[in-house]
Amino acid sequence: MTATTAASNSLTSPSSQPPPGPRGWPLVGHLPQVTREGLLPFMARTWRTWGDVFALDVGFHAVVVAHPEGIKRILAGNAKNYIKGVTYDGVRKVIGNGVLALEGDAWKKRRALLQPAFHRAALGKLTEAMVDSGARHFDALLAANRGAAFTLDAHRDMVKLTLDVVVAALFGRELVGAADLSYEALGAALELVGEQGNGVVLPSWVPTPSNRKFHRTMKEVDAAVFKVIEAGRKRDGTDGTLLSMLMGSRDADTGEPLSDRDLRDEVFTMFVAGHETTALTLTWMFTLLDGRDDVLSAMREEVDRVLGDRDPTFEDVPKLVYLRQVVDETLRLRGPVAMNARNAVDDDEVLGFRIKKGDVVMPFFYGAHRHPDFWEDPERFDPARFAPEHAQKRHLWSYVPFSNGQRRCIGDTFSLVETVVLLAQLLRRFELTIAPGQDQVKPVAIVTVRPDRPVHITLKARVRS
Fold it and tell me: What is the pTM assigned to this prediction?
């Protein structure tokens, strides 16, 4: 059954039925296939075979939903029935109970408290930190290579750059230096999110090498973050960093500020959500640009026309229309998050299929972004899909790289602005060449969607006529 046929039947189904799916092995379910093929290829193949709602056993019973209307039902239409339950426990061990992990009234209050930090005026200030980080990074590359062409492992380099951006935006560099919070320790904490959120993890009291590493890393990072918070409370609160904005927030009902523990959890949440996702977007963009000199030329033309010989400001970002289209199309095909998971609180029905209390329900964004009912030639990289004149024709739930509904990522605009700003800075300074064969790099879904091998790009200082 094709995805299109399944969508048609399920939307008109007169009675609820169990979701279909492939037969698994006794005890281990579909884990052997996932191990052999990889989670993302296996799920994509299963979707194309079984349709828009299907069941899997991957250590737990999961119902995967790929149709935009089904995803809408889970994340908006009946969102109260689908919570971030036990499937998020591993991630909570690292990031704590920040806005990403909270539920119910606690989440609503925290979201309202944080929202001003991402309003337009705040983003304007944060963009200055992005631009400063980008200029420092790219100018250092120019100086180190003295005009000669050089090749980079793009993911490694973009991770380094976006880590600097998020640290500067969150804390300010001077505060991080004063607290001895190393970039290496932050990077190790980020890796822990992937380990804790991927598969079966033994209880933290079991003295495995992985658990010992977990306790050692978290002890080091927590001590440094609390030291940063202590120093931040003594600092002028008008420096425009996210930490200062969070410290200035007050509960609407009680007037109380966030506690140090609450601040720690939100800092970790923003660090995790605002770091690797942007690095991955830029990295995947390079793979999609392989053989697309037409797109590269159009991007460079827009940067030169809008910016000339200066770096972008926040006010320039809306003028870089084509760059944003390229970013959006990259997020469609290679969004950093391919799916998420919710626990069903009670029985429900999605597109005519029965959801049982306790099921793990997985909105499959990767499938929605490729659904043939909503995207023509869906595997083709075509930034023109996101030209302004096409926006009104698009199903609102067919493109959800930052999720959607009330739990849409609070930092979505921050991430989009950061990606466009850094891309514009790179294109202004360098001739970009994509190494042949990068279109063969495959996505691997862990917690985020990472490349299965290094992505190589060649940069050379631009010579302006």
Answer: 0.89
* Contact in structure between 322 and 299 (CB atoms under 8 Å): yes
Can you tell me which residue has the tokens 């806005």?
99
CA distance 295 to 102: 41
Q: Which domains does the chain have, with CATH numbers?
A: 3-461 (1.10.630.10)
Minimal CA–CA distance to 281: which of 331, 322, 323?
331
Tell me if residue 360 falls in helix, strand or coil: strand
Tell me which amino acid residue 183 is.
Y
Burial label for 292, CB within 10 Å (0-12, 13-18, 19+), is: middle
Q: Do the Cβ atoms of 402 and 409 come closer than 8 Å? A: yes
39 residue type, one letter: L
Sign of CA dihedral 297, 298, 300, 301: positive
Q: Which residue, among 298, 365, 359, has the nearest Cα to 326 in the 3D structure?
A: 298
Contact (Cβ atoms closer than 8 angstroms) between residue 256 and residue 250: yes
Between 183-196 and 260-288, two packed helices, what is the crossing angle to 10 degrees? 80
- Residue that the structure tokens 């870089």 belong to: 320
Neighbour-count burial for 232-247, b at 16+ CB within 10 Å, e otherwise: beebeeeebbbbbbbb
**What are the pLDDT digits (tens) for 296-341?**
999 999 999 999 999 999 999 999 999 999 999 999 999 999 999 9
The strands making up 456-461's β-sheet, listed across from edge to edge, are 150-153, 456-461, 430-434
* Per-residue pLDDT tens digits for 29-59: 999 999 899 999 999 999 999 999 999 998 8
Among residues 169, 163, 164, the alpha carbon closest in space to that of 243 is found at: 169
In 186-259, DSSP assigns E strands to none
Tell me the DSSP string of 396-421.
TTS--BTB-GGGS-TTHHHHHHHHHH
Q: State the Rg of the chain over Cα.
A: 22
Burial of 396 (0-12, 13-18, 19+ CB in 10 A): exposed
